[in-house]
Specification:
With about 750 residues, the chain is α+β, with helices and mostly antiparallel strands. A hairpin with a 7-residue loop joins strand 6 (about 295) and strand 7. The protein is globular and about 85 Å long. Helices cover about 45% and strands about 10% of the residues. The strands form 8 sheets. Strands 1-3-2-4-5 form a 5-stranded mixed beta sheet, sandwiched between helices. A 4-stranded mixed beta sheet has the order 21-20-22-23, sandwiched between helices. A 3-stranded antiparallel beta sheet has the order 8-11-14.
Length: about 750
C-alpha cells in the first residue's frame, strides 16, 4: 500500500529553499505539507510566541489526511510559491491535524461557523497571537468564484485590516470569544446535585422527531449530503427492543409514573431497518472489499465521498451486529446484516490493521493485528495527480473487457455503472441500490472475485497510520460484540490484542493519583496531548464490552481505572468539560474557559460516552457515585436534546434507553463448562438495551462486585442471576429460563 504522504513529495528538499517545521511531525497529514514552501509550524506555544514577537496574525489551517478538498487547496495554494511568499511575510502559518487535536478543531469550527455560516475542511482561520479568532472560512480557491473570494484576496484583506484597523480586529475577536463561551452548555451541566427523574416519554418523542426527518424512500435522515447515523441507529435498535421502560425507583434514571410511554418500538425498528438496508445495498458500502465510506454526496447513497474512517466502520460494525441480535425485519433480514457485519470486521482488520511488527517489537507474530489505523484517503494518486475515488470507479467498457460482453453488461446494469459516469465522465462506483437476489446473486458471487482482483492491481488510497485511543476503543467494543454474536472468536482475539496495545502504549498509570491516557500514538510510541473525555470514555466502553464477552477481569480493571481518571480530570469541579486545558490558546478562544459540547459528531460526544460507561460500571460495581453521575448527565441533557436535536444526540438517547431498562445485570457463575458457555452465549445474544454481563474468570484473583457472593448452584452447576441495582431474582440454570426472565424484565 502506498505511503499516504508520498504524493506530496515526502520531506522537504533542502535545495528547494522550503523551510517549515513539519518534516519531523508524526502526523501523516502534517508531513504531507512538509514540502510546501509555506513556513508551516505545528500548533503550540512557540508558533504563537513567534506571531507575538513579529506582531503578525496567525493563519491556522485545519484538515486531515483523508480529506479531498484539503489536498485540492494544498495543491492550488500551499504549493504555490507566490502565495507562500505572501503567507510567510505577513503571517505565522500553523497546520493542525484535526484528528490529533479535536479540541483545537472544535473551538475553531465554532468560530468558523459563527463568522462564515459554514463549516468543513480545510478550515482556514485567522487568529490573534493569543489564539482568539477574528476571521475564518473553509476552502478558498486560487481565483475568485461567484460568492467566494480567492485565497490571495482573503490574505490581503486580513493583512490590511490587521495593519490599518487593529482595534476593530481585536474587538471582533473579543466579541466572538465571549459568544463561543456563552454558547457552551457546561455552566448548566452541574454534576454535584441530585438528579431529576428521567421521563421515558422523551425517548418516544425523539423517535417521533426522527420519523419527521426520515427519508423513508431512500433511508437515512434529511437530504444530501447523507452521513451514516451510527449513534442514532444504536438508539433506535435499543428502543425497538423495549416497548416500555420499567418503573423502578432504584434504577439509574427513573420514568415519571404519570407519563405514558407511547409504543414507538415498531417505528424505531422500521426506521433502523430502512437505513441499514439502504446503506449496505449502496455505493456507500464497498461492494467488493467491504467497509463504509464517510458519507454520500447524493440522497440515495449512490455517490460516496470515498474516504473510509475507522470511527465510522467501528460504530457501524457494532450497529449491524446489534441489528442481527434484534432479529432484523422481513425487509432487512438478520442474516443479510450478519454478512455485512462480517465483511466490515474483515475490512477493518485487513485494511486498517497494524501488525505487531509495524508498531512495536513486542506483541506476537508479525501477522497479528494489534492496533487500527485511522483512515484510508478519499483520493488515489494516479500519475502524480490526486484523483478522488479513482480506485473504486468503473466504466461499462472496463467491465466488459474484464468479464466479457454478456457478464460485463449485466454487471454494469446490476451495479448502475453508466456512461457518463456518476462521479466523473465515464466512471461510477458500484451501486446496486437494492437487494441482490436470485440470478443476480449468482452472477455477483461468480464475478466479484475477478473484480476484486482487478481492483487490487490499481493504485490504492493512502493510509493514515496514527492510532487514536478513542477510535480504537470503539473498535474493541465492536469486534468483541461481533465475535460473540457472529460466533467468530478470532474477532474477540483481535479486540483483546487492541486492548492490550492501548494499555501498553497509550495508558500511563500513576501510583499516587489517576492515570493518564494519551490520545495518539505513531509507530508504537504515544506522543502529543493527553486523551480527551471521549478517549477515556470510549476506551472504557470498549473494555467493559470486552470484559462482558471474555470475563477477563484485566479488561474490567483497566476500564475502571480509565473511568476513574476521566471523572477526576473532566468532572472534578462539578462541571463537565471535554478537555483538560491542553492549550492556553484554545481556552482563550472560548473566552477563558474549557467547554463541553453535548452533541455527537462523527463519534459520540464525550458527555454521552461518559454517561454510557458510567451506567455500565455502576451495574457491574454497584457504585452509587457513578450511578448518580450518569443520572445527572442524562437528566440534564436528554430533556434539552431528545425532541429538539435527536439526530445529534443518538448516543445520549441510547444510553438513556439502557438506563431506563435498568440496565439489567446478569451474573454468570459456576465452573467453566459447556453448560456455562451456553448460558453466557444466550445473554450475549439478547437485545436487551444495555444488558450488562459479568462472568466468572477462573484465573482472576478478584471477581467484579456483581459476582461476589453469587456462586454455582447446589450441585455445582452454572447458573445466572438477573438483577437490577444489584438486587437479583432467584438464579436459573437453563437457557429457556434466562430468555423468559429477560423478556419479563424488559416488559
Amino acid at each position: 500500500m502506498p505511503d499516504p504522504e508520498a504524493a506530496d513529495g515526502g520531506p522537504p528538499d533542502p535545495r528547494s529553499g522550503a523551510s517549515n517545521a513539519l518534516a519531523a511531525e508524526p502526523s501523516a497529514y502534517l508531513r504531507q505539507h512538509a514540502g510546501n514552501p509555506v513556513h508551516w509550524q505545528p500548533f503550540g506555544d512557540a508558533a504563537f510566541a513567534a506571531a507575538a514577537a513579529r506582531d503578525v496574525p496567525v493563519f491556522l489551517s485545519i484538515g486531515y489526511a483523508a480529506c479531498h478538498w484539503c489536498h485540492v487547496m494544498a495543491h492550488e495554494s500551499f504549493e504555490d510559491q507566490d502565495t507562500a511568499d505572501y503567507l510567510n511575510a505577513h503571517f505565522v502559518s500553523v497546520k493542525v491535524d484535526r484528528e490529533e487535536r479535536p479540541d483545537v478543531d472544535a473551538v475553531y469550527m465554532a468560530a468558523t461557523q459563527a463568522i462564515s455560516g459554514e463549516g468543513g475542511w480545510p478550515m482556514s482561520v485567522f487568529l490573534l497571537p493569543d489564539g482568539r479568532a477574528f476571521h475564518a472560512g473553509t476552502y478558498f480557491p486560487p481565483r475568485p468564484m461567484p460568492g467566494r473570494p480567492s485565497f490571495r484576496q482573503v490574505l490581503e484583506a486580513v493583512s490590511e485590516a490587521w495593519t490599518e484597523r487593529r482595534g476593530g480586529v481585536e474587538a471582533n475577536a473579543s466579541t466572538l470569544a465571549r459568544g463561543i463561551a456563552a454558547s457552551q452548555p457546561a455552566a448548566a451541566v452541574r454534576l454535584d446535585g441530585p438528579p431529576e427523574p428521567l421521563d421515558a416519554a422523551l425517548l418516544g418523542e425523539a423517535v417521533a422527531a426522527l420519523s419527521d426527518s426520515e427519508d423513508q424512500a431512500r433511508g437515512g435522515f434529511g437530504g444530501a449530503p447523507k452521513f451514516p447515523p451510527s449513534a442514532v441507529l444504536e438508539f433506535l435498535i435499543r428502543h425497538a427492543a423495549v416497548p416500555s421502560a420499567p418503573r423502578d425507583p432504584d434504577t439509574v434514571a427513573t420514568q415519571v409514573p404519570e407519563t405514558p410511554v407511547p409504543d414507538t418500538a415498531a417505528a424505531a425498528r422500521d426506521m433502523a431497518g430502512r437505513t441499514l438496508a439502504a446503506m449496505s445495498r449502496s455505493a456507500l458500502f464497498d461492494q467488493l472489499d467491504g467497509g463504509f465510506a464517510r458519507y454520500s454526496v447524493t440522497g440515495d447513497w449512490s455517490v460516496p465521498h470515498f474516504e473510509k474512517m475507522l470511527y465510522d466502520n467501528a460504530q457501524l460494525l457494532r450497529v449491524y451486529v446489534h441489528w442481527v441480535r434484534l432479529g432484523g425485519t422481513p425487509e432487512y433480514p438478520a442474516d443479510e446484516a450478519a454478512g455485512i457485519a462480517g465483511r466490515t470486521a474483515d475490512w477493518l482488520l485487513a485494511r486498517l490493521g497494524l501488525a505487531a511488527n509495524q508498531v512495536t517489537p513486542e506483541g506476537g507474530p508479525d501477522s497479528d493485528v494489534v492496533a487500527l489505523a485511522s483512515s484510508l484517503d478519499a483520493d488515489t494518486v494516479v500519475d502524480g495527480v490526486h484523483a478522488e475515488g479513482a480506485t473504486y470507479l468503473w466504466t461499462p467498457a472496463e467491465l466488459e473487457a474484464l468479464l466479457g460482453p454478456a457478464d460485463g453488461a449485466a454487471v454494469a446494469d446490476l451495479m448502475n455503472v453508466r456512461t457518463p459516469g456518476s462521479v466523473e465522465a465515464g466512471g461510477s462506483p458500484l451501486h446496486p441500490g437494492r437487494e441482490i437476489t436470485g440470478g443476480d446473486a449468482a452472477l455477483w458471487q461468480r464475478v466479484r472475485p475477478l473484480l476484486a482482483q482487478a481492483r487490487g492491481g490499481r493504485a490504492q488510497p493512502g493510509r493514515d497510520e496514527k492510532v487514536v485511543a478513542g477510535w480504537n476503543g470503539l473498535a474493541v467494543a465492536a469486534l468483541a460484540d461481533a465475535g460473540a454474536v457472529l460466533a467468530r472468536p478470532e474477532l474477540v482475539d483481535a479486540a483483546e490484542r487492541i486492548a492490550a496495545y492501548l494499555e501498553r502504549v497509550h495508558w500511563r498509570p500513576a501510583a499516587d493519583g489517576p492515570g493518564r491516557l494519551m490520545r495518539v500514538s505513531h509507530d508504537g510510541v504515544a506522543r502529543g496531548i493527553g486523551g480527551l473525555l471521549e478517549d477515556y470514555a470510549l476506551c472504557a466502553e470498549g473494555l467493559f464490552a470486552l470484559y462482558g464477552v471474555t470475563g477477563h477481569t484485566r479488561s474490567y480493571d483497566l476500564a475502571e481505572a480509565m473511568l476513574d481518571a476521566a471523572c477526576r480530570r473532566f468532572a472534578a469541579d462539578g462541571d463537565l468539560k471535554d478537555a483538560a486545558g491542553e492549550s492556553t490558546q484554545v481556552t482563550a478562544a472560548q473566552g477563558g474557559r474549557d467547554g463541553m459540547d453535548p452533541f455527537d459528531s462523527a463519534t459520540p460526544s464525550g458527555a454521552a460516552a461518559l454517561a454510557g460507561a458510567l451506567v455500565t460500571h455502576a451495574a457491574l460495581s454497584g457504585s452509587s457515585e457513578h450511578r448518580t453521575l450518569a443520572a445527572n448527565i442524562l437528566s440534564l441533557l436528554v430533556p434539552a436534546l431528545a425532541a429538539r436535536a435527536p439526530r445529534a444526540a443518538g448516543w445520549l438517547l441510547a444510553t438513556a434507553q439502557a438506563a431506563l431498562a435498568g440496565p439489567i445485570e446478569a451474573a454468570v457463575t459456576g465452573p467453566d463448562t459447556p453448560e456455562r458457555a451456553a448460558l453466557h452465549r444466550a445473554l450475549l445474544l439478547s437485545a436487551s438495551p444495555g444488558l450488562v454481563v459479568a462472568v466468572q474468570d477462573d484465573d482472576a484473583g478478584r471477581p467484579v462486585p456483581l459476582l461476589r457472593g453469587r456462586g454455582a448452584g447446589p450441585d455445582g452447576a452454572p447458573q445466572v442471576f438477573l438483577c437490577r441495582g444489584m438486587v437479583c431474582d432467584l438464579p436459573t440454570g437453563s437457557i429457556d429460563g434466562v430468555r423468559e426472565r429477560l423478556a419479563t424484565m424488559a416488559s
